[in-house]
Every structure is written in C-alpha cells, then in structure tokens.
Amino acid sequence: MEKWYSIRMRASEGGPHEKGGCHISGAERIIEEKELEQVAANMINRALTHSRGEPDFISLKVDKIEQEAMHIISPVQVQKIDNKTQSETKEVLKKLLAPLSLKEEVLFSLYDWMIEDDQTRGAIIVDIHSGKRIDNQGLSGVRVSHFDWDKSFRKKWVRNKNDFHNERRLEAVALASKVAKAGTICELCCSDDPEYTTGYVTFQHTYVQIPNMKKKGVPRGGRVFLVDASTIDLDAYMHYLEKTPVLIGGSK
Ligand code: WAQ
Ligand code: MG
C-alpha cells in the first residue's frame, strides 16, 4: 500500500507572507514517500527562479495523509475560447457566463478586482446573488490545498490533449476540479505572474481557458469562488478546500 504525503511550498520577499512579505511563488502536491526528496528540491528551485522576484522566505511543509482520508474525484472538462485582446475580455466573460444568474455589474466588478489584486494570497469567496465577499479571511484569503493528480491517470488524460503538457495548466485544472467538486458555482482565475496572461473560468464542470485575461507585464492577479450563500455550509466548504486530501482520477 502506498504512503501518501502532502507537500506545500510558499515563498515571499520582504519576510513571510503573514508579516507583510510579497508573494513570489507557491506549489502543492500529493506524492508518495519515494518522491519526497526530488519534489522538495524541485519546489525550492521553482521558488528561487520565479519571474516575480527573489524570495528571502521559503516555507516547505510535509504532512502524511491517512489512506482512508483520501478522496478520489474526476477532472473537470477542458475547453479553450478565442479572445483576441484584453479589451474584449469582459464582454467575452459576460457571454460565456450568461447561463448563470450573475448580474453584469457583479461580474465586471469581480473581474476588475481580480486583475488588479496584489494583496490576497488565496481566493475570495463571493455570494453569487449579492456579489459580496463572505469568507472573512482578509488578506490570506482561502488557500486550496491537499490536491494533486493521480500520476498514471494524468498520463492517460494528457495523451489526447496537446495543449495540456504544461505544469502550470495541469496544476490549475487539478485545483479547479477540487474547487468545482466542493460545490462552487463558478471560479474566475487570473495568474499574478507578469508574463502569464491566460486565465480561466470554471462553471458547469468545465474549465474554459481565456487568453488575454489581463495585459502582459502586470504582476497582479487573483481568484474568485462564486457560491450560493443561501445554501452553502461555508465552514464545511472551506474545510474541504483547505484540508481534505483529493486525488484527481485513479483509485485508492
Ligand atoms: N488557493 C487559492 N487561491 C490561490 C491558490 C490556491 N492554492 N494559489 C494561488 N491562488 C490565487 C492567488 O490570489 C494568486 O494571486 C492567484 O490565485 C493566481 O495564482 O489554462 O498560475 O498561481 O493556461 O499565479 C491559469 C492557467 C494559471 C490557465 C493560474 O495562478 C491556462 C496561475 P497563480
Ligand atoms: Mg503566480
């Protein structure tokens, strides 16, 4: 029987995040014991070579996961839409998300917030009806944690998807799958990496890549999870996102 570990890295400049340091890089994996050393080294390398700057704080955490605690879920479907310039992004989002009961002014203000956010370390949770933030997590936001692909499932999954051989994208699909499974109606995401301008939205169990989510060269970005505040159990929802170990695909 395999022994699973959660491994998490976060790096910042100007001290730790909680002491006001500026976020540089973060990563999450669930791996077997024999991979721990290699993955730890890769994560430290990733922190030290990030385009957002040079960290002076790196935290690496490793926790063993009890086999019975592991949840296995399916990945979301993936799609890509055309979006030629950033000036059209809002309208593209509006059309795409028309099936949801989301007011235009709420969508647009969340979009404006997301592409300019340079403070929140995780995601914000917003009620889809009122457009108000409901998580009370301040600048730390909600960090989705304890998720990864099952390695052999991932190998098969990427086989017929030419566009999905990049680590960042695969990590985003895994995170989005856990977020969708938690009961999120819609996730909006824009990277905070200055060179990475493709973002995504996930709704109705589909991850839709959106080129030109923001302008190139901007070191800001964020994530928004839209939920129905009248039906969701917020504590259970956040607990699942932060703590429940989830593998995408595969079997126990
Ligand atoms: N949990 C919650 N929020 C997070 C997490 C997390 N584990 N990691 C990052 N965030 C928030 C945080 O506010 C960041 O500023 C923001 O999301 C963006 O994070 O298919 O790279 O890691 O090509 O920069 C999308 C890929 C990549 C699209 C997204 O996000 C595609 C990306 P980043
Ligand atoms: Mg980033």
Any overview of this molecule?
It is a single chain. The relative contact order is 0.20. Helix content is 27%, strand content 27%. Strand 8 (186-190) and strand 9 (199-203) form a beta hairpin. It is of the alpha/beta class. It has helices at 36-48, 89-96, 104-116, 151-159, 167-181, 234-243; strands at 4-13, 22-32, 57-65, 71-73, 77-80, 123-127, 147-149, 186-190, 199-203, 206-210, 222-227, 246-248. Strands 5-10-9-8-11-6 form a six-stranded mixed beta sheet, with helices on both faces. A three-stranded antiparallel beta sheet has the order 2-1-3, covered by helices on one side. The protein has a three-stranded parallel beta sheet with strand order 4-12-7. The structure holds pimeloyl-AMP and magnesium ion (MG). Magnesium ion binds at residues 191-193. Pimeloyl-AMP (WAQ) binds at residues 26, 28, 120-123, 142-144, 168-169, 172, 175, 189, 191-193, 196, 198-200, 209, 221-223.
Summarize the structure.
The chain is an alpha/beta fold. It is globular, with a radius of gyration of 18 Å.
Q: Could you give a short account of the major beta sheet?
A: 6 strands, mixed
Q: What coarse outline follows from CA principal-axis ratios?
A: globular
Low-confidence region ranges: none
End-to-end separation? 9 Å
Mean pLDDT: 94
Q: Give the oligomeric state of the chains in this entry, treating copies of one chain as homo and distinct chains as hetero.
A: single chain
β content, as a range? 25-35%
Strand order of the largest sheet: 5-10-9-8-11-6
Care to count the β-strands?
12
Ligands, ions, cofactors: pimeloyl-AMP, magnesium ion
Helix percentage range? 25-40%
Overall structural class, as computed from helix and strand content, comes to alpha/beta
Radius of gyration: 18 Å
